[in-house]
From TrEMBL, chain A:
One term under GO cellular component: plasma membrane
Key words, A-Z: ATP-binding, Cell membrane, Ion transport, Iron, Iron transport, Membrane, Nucleotide-binding, Transport
Protein source organism: Microcella putealis
Official protein name in the record: Iron complex transport system ATP-binding protein
Localization terms from the record: Cell membrane
UniProt cross-references to InterPro entries, sorted A to Z: AAA+_ATPase, ABC_transporter-like_ATP-bd, ABC_transporter-like_CS, P-loop_NTPase, Siderophore_ABC-ATPase
ABC transporter domain segment(s): 23-259
UniProt-recorded Gene Ontology molecular function terms: ATP binding; ATP hydrolysis activity
Membrane topology, as annotated: Peripheral membrane protein
Keyword Cell membrane: yes
The UniProt record lists the keyword Glycoprotein: no
Biological process, per Gene Ontology: iron ion transport
Transmembrane segments: none
From TrEMBL, chain B:
Protein's organism: Microcella putealis
InterPro entries in UniProt: ABC_BtuC-like (IPR037294), ABC_transptr_permease_BtuC (IPR000522)
CDD domains: TM_ABC_iron-siderophores_like
Annotated protein name in UniProt: Iron complex transport system permease protein
Transmembrane domains' residue ranges: 37-56, 91-108, 120-139, 145-165, 177-198, 222-241, 269-295, 307-326, 338-356
Amino acid sequence: MTATAPAPVTLSPDAPGAAAPALRAENLTLGYTKDRPVVHGVDVAVRPGALTVLVGANASGKSTLLRGLARLLPAHEGHVTLDGDPIERIPARQLARTIGVLPQNPIAPEGITAGELVARGRYPHQPVFRGRSSDDDAVVAASLAATDAASLAERRMDELSGGQRQRVWIAMALAQQPRILLLDEPTSALDVAHQVEVLDVLRAEVDRGTTVVVVLHDLTLAARYADELVVLCDGRIVAQGTAGEVLTEATVRDAFGIDARILTDPDTGRPVVLPRALVSPVASPVASTVPNPAKTPVVFQATV
Amino acid sequence: MTATEAAPSEVARPAGVARSPHLVASRRSRAARLRGAALLGLGLALAVALSLALGARATDLATVVTALTDPGALGDPADAVAVRDLRVPRTVIGLIVGVALGLAGVVMQGVARNPVADPGLLGVTAGASFAVVLGIALAGETGVIGLAVWALAGALVTSLGIGALARAAGDRATPALLVVVGFAVTAGLGTLTTLVLLGDPAALDRYRFWTVGSLTGRELDAALTLLPLVVAGVMVAALLARPLDALALGDDVARGLGFRLGAVRGGSLVAIVLLAGTATALAGPLVFVGLLGAHAARAAVGGHHGLLMPVAAVAGAAFVLVADVIGRLVAPPGELEVGIVIAALGAPLLIALVRARRAVAA
């Protein structure tokens, strides 16, 4: 930042140092039909200012939990609170200024440019009949810069690579200036370089003070980037904590149904998961050494 | 966290932000958009002029101007009648109907995320029109407002039906499927219309012009009476510009941006019913106007609804007027109703659009 620069644009709307908002779920039960819940009575406190990664097998409820936290899915039971207020009572626009959401498979309309797309992230901040202000333009430019997508602004979304496109979508969510960013599998269908590219962007956002919750599939990448790892199995949280605490051979066996060896990355000290073989299918995932998750949900709370 | 730690979170607005490629580009395209808008405005003005000047009765430009400004000075009073009592009303009605259907097309395409949505193609104008038949045949309705109420009710019921069907079909509700359903609805209602009218020759007579869509035989007063409904529809549509932009990114993204899907869908329903219902009450069940207006606008200014809406409204109005003028000229001394001309022009365009999209998908 130079002394001559005009008023700085920050991607976080509050004063620096303001406490990050607390997002938590209490006894949260979610599902797409009333009689078949996908997430069962989950208690989870999202660690403010940290990068939380949700992992779990297919259909373990990780995306569903994320959608519940983002209010994309109403709670059947229990509730999600933001700084203690139930999110369903917070006006939608106000919530959109605090929580940015990047769902799976967003749609880029035909012919739209990256810059135009990111500009739509400003809607929660714009009064109904006011057009784009120069502040909006500055935030859009800053969001594109933050995701290293500034040079893509004029390009049409349909001519970008998967990784570039995903960075633009993240920039759109950043243009909301959210304090909390929720992303559902932003790296699926990306090659490893593009996955790292996207995760680096999220890491940088966390370093700027944003709370990030992201659903990932790749356990080793999850371990590499997560400050906090949440493992789901059958709609329940079976483990939560740092990657080193959580990624044990027992947990991986129970949550994913594979026998795996866990090594330690000599450079980062983080766990590396090496799948060995499928656990025989008759083994029940609940019969394990891990405490029964249904009865003792792990609540992890921490300060920044 | 201290202020110094937070420093990286502050992205200084560089002195050169205003010159960043992105913003320069948007300014450049703003100029292009202005040029496009000016061209469209010019096109509409031309269409209005043609609509006032051309008809079965030959009138030169000077006569038209005199008839509008000082009818008493004309040698032949029939000229004044032709211009003032025939051409002015149908021009005004054509404008209102074209604006309403162009806008309704944009709203429909936006809320359904369906590029071939059109109030006519999806059966909404057919529903409005069938309701009017019921009004005429069963309730003996003749008043402008009465018929408009029937039309709005018909548009509402059909829109709700199509919407429910689309949501029930979920992912299978492809653009093509909805159009097929719309055709089925239109055909079914057409049969019912015939059934109702068979037993009632007088109603059939009154209804005859209307089914094909026509701007003639409509009173200017009627149009002005119904104008507030269209204005209300325009205002609701204007409020929907941003929500529809957000909806274009997917339901979840739109909700993440703080829009409530129920409100957006409800608002769209209100706008579509007001615009398409009133247009049908005024000119009969026209198809393709919304489709053509929306696509011309999309091609000209892109997918931003704030721009798309006014441009589609202008394009729809110009299209209806030009079609009406063509209808007056192709079969002198008789006329072709505007609905027939529009269908003749619109059908090939729809086929071309569907084919072009298939090429993109492949």
